[in-house]
Give the backbone structure.
Amino acid sequence: MPHPLDEARYALALANRIVAHEGVLDGFGHISLRHPANADRYLLSRSRSPELIEPSDILEFSLDSKLITAGDFLPYGECVIHGEIYKARPDVRAICHHHSSAILPFCITGAELKPMNGLGSVMGAKVPFWDSRDEFGDTPMVVTTPAQGASLARALGPHSMVLMRRHGATVVGATIQEAVFRAIHTHRNAELQLRAATLGEASPLSTGEAEMACAYSLRERPMGRAWEYWTTRLAKAGEMPPKIV
Amino acid sequence: MPHPLDEARYALALANRIVAHEGVLDGFGHISLRHPANADRYLLSRSRSPELIEPSDILEFSLDSKLITAGDFLPYGECVIHGEIYKARPDVRAICHHHSSAILPFCITGAELKPMNGLGSVMGAKVPFWDSRDEFGDTPMVVTTPAQGASLARALGPHSMVLMRRHGATVVGATIQEAVFRAIHTHRNAELQLRAATLGEASPLSTGEAEMACAYSLRERPMGRAWEYWTTRLAKAGEMPPKIV
Amino acid sequence: MPHPLDEARYALALANRIVAHEGVLDGFGHISLRHPANADRYLLSRSRSPELIEPSDILEFSLDSKLITAGDFLPYGECVIHGEIYKARPDVRAICHHHSSAILPFCITGAELKPMNGLGSVMGAKVPFWDSRDEFGDTPMVVTTPAQGASLARALGPHSMVLMRRHGATVVGATIQEAVFRAIHTHRNAELQLRAATLGEASPLSTGEAEMACAYSLRERPMGRAWEYWTTRLAKAGEMPPKIV
Amino acid sequence: MPHPLDEARYALALANRIVAHEGVLDGFGHISLRHPANADRYLLSRSRSPELIEPSDILEFSLDSKLITAGDFLPYGECVIHGEIYKARPDVRAICHHHSSAILPFCITGAELKPMNGLGSVMGAKVPFWDSRDEFGDTPMVVTTPAQGASLARALGPHSMVLMRRHGATVVGATIQEAVFRAIHTHRNAELQLRAATLGEASPLSTGEAEMACAYSLRERPMGRAWEYWTTRLAKAGEMPPKIV
């Protein structure tokens, strides 16, 4: 019988590979998971490209983003994004930070991301915009200090996703499946909004439609069907993470 | 000698995989087939992503979308789309409901989909537009009640394809090959219309050209050549459905 | 020692597969070759999608597009495109007719295709535009009569490529390598011109540059390097045609 | 223990394959490396498409682009690009010349390439523009004479990348990893800038952000993570160069 922590490490490696395989993550970006038994810790890979992550790469951090796992591991420079959001948002159990090619045009132009169809509504009622320049002036465009992470967490507020000006996006979820579902379907919504911009004025969902569609999409059935779909696609590509032995 | 129902189940699994492999269906959407021996029933997979469907997933439904197949199966939430169209259109033997990335920009902007070339003309003389808001106000952007399915069927009317505002499209066919051909080539026509929009004003086929090209394209030869092409591509990718044993 | 006709049939199957693999041909379209020993005949596959063609599919036709090969074979409906051009242009030894996704936006809008870079200049100094409506009114958007083929050949005139309104393109070459090179690199030039249209006014090659670059590109070295590249890519994908035994 | 020159030849073959696999190089374009033991020489493949290059294809040249390696090898027509830049820029140890589909729209329209995000800032503070017409009038759009190579090197000046009007780009690096990183991430920045142009006015990095982000991105950690990522992707695709035996 597998240990819950081992299961969590495997699930996290799998989630990273799924989100990379579906084109949201590339060589950079990362997904974390709150520790299944200790809400004051979170799990995150050592610094490695998401599609390469193995369960043995998963490290344990305090919410102050201090590395707990013993050994000579190099963490991601931006791990504070995860720690500061877990601190501010007890309801959040998984976080994905990425720089998807469909989301970045919104981060660059400031165009508002809006729910274009039912699945896109999982972005939530509002997607706030965070610009590191507002509080920190010129930076190397990475979130590496606790103060920067906390500022981003404040911008996220009670929402499910935050766009980061000239940088990327961070999405959260109540479960790892939800964070993955939200990362992939908001990426696809952005792709749609981009393509529709060629044709004319988009007509997004009404507030009522978006609320109802979001609740409908985050039920067990569609999330389960999508998870089976993404996992099978990953397996067919020969990209599943190695089992923990 | 295979039973006609087994052949139908295999063909339906194959059709789902072809349309997914050609990029029209993704994790969601579905294709159905009228029962080969009983016009008051239709065949549709249990709730599963199209590229994963096996013949053993295919269930039988009444035209009121009651599940006939015994067992503990979870149907798609939107099966009423199929039942209500089969009720209203005795000439229809196959239906594909999808949310293709090329069609959705038209559903979002309301831009009119028009035949751009010979193969695109299989959309038919007119592609009506259905907006769930008109009759049902705010919904979770899915078609789950018989009344919604019947409304969509009325919007489809005698046509071959209906666009669903902020949702996707539903295409029908006199055979499963025709529904597949129409789903794929209208998707490709949409892609072309999108790309052409970057360059200038499109000059669509004339009414006469569209009628003649539609009749020409739906002959046995081009449909057969396309079916061989798509099946071979699927087989080369190692994605054929398992045989019924 | 292989027979020259067998070599020609193999080369023609290979050319069809290369141009399909590089994204110019899809389920439709075709490449032909003038008979190596008899200038009054040409070689063209039976009606089959290009990426599936085998040397044994290659048939022999007169320049009036009468099938010479004995047997029960179904030719392409549009074989007259090839026959009529071979009749009108003794210098032409290979022809590719296609409906590429990058060329079609030009055929739909009438936007002028221009040489954007050195390789794109192989389109030649001018790419004429043929509209079937001018002489034939409403048609099913296919070129199936000798009169239509002859009209297209007149529009092509002494040029290397002709765009067909709402239909596609036909490119010719002095060798099969040249026709393949021209089909692929004009497709890529079209792709570039489309993408550049998003950014602003394109600055095409000057007439002098285009002439010099066309001559430079059609030398043995770049054509040979490209042929090795495309063949190796096809082989790595496991898509080479079967050998003649 | 491998000889440093053998290691350099292997690394250069690998770099060519990586940059091709990531979509920057296609059938044309090339990467060179300054000789590890002799700063007056450089290494460059014989004329071959980048994704096919093997260590045994790597030739040695003087900075005047005379072939030093004995044997009957055909060099690239544009090797002077490399020689003249190595002459002018003692700090440069690797050079990539390419015609990427994302960069070319900038070369065609003259639109200014700007850093859109942290990784894109590796283009440097300024990307100069070189137009062969200015000094050489009509050419076949290739850089084949020492005078042309020297003119391009002057346009590059102290910068890291130069756009070549209606032709492509040349990027340099202090190491081969840096040249590869810059070639790939400036290509991706161009892709982003193109896509953002559909949505509205882009807001590039400030000068301060770009400087800090460039320095941050070119550290060992992100470059190493990217190198592992690209190499693993190449290996998974079965595309690694053969070992030197």
The mean pLDDT of chain A is 96. The interface with chain D takes residues 27-28, 47-49, 51-52, 74, 77, 99, 101-102, 104-111, 133, 137-142, 165-168, 194, 197-198, 238-239 of chain A (CB under 8 Å). The radius of gyration of chain A is 17 Å. Residues 176-196 of chain A form the longest helix (21 residues).
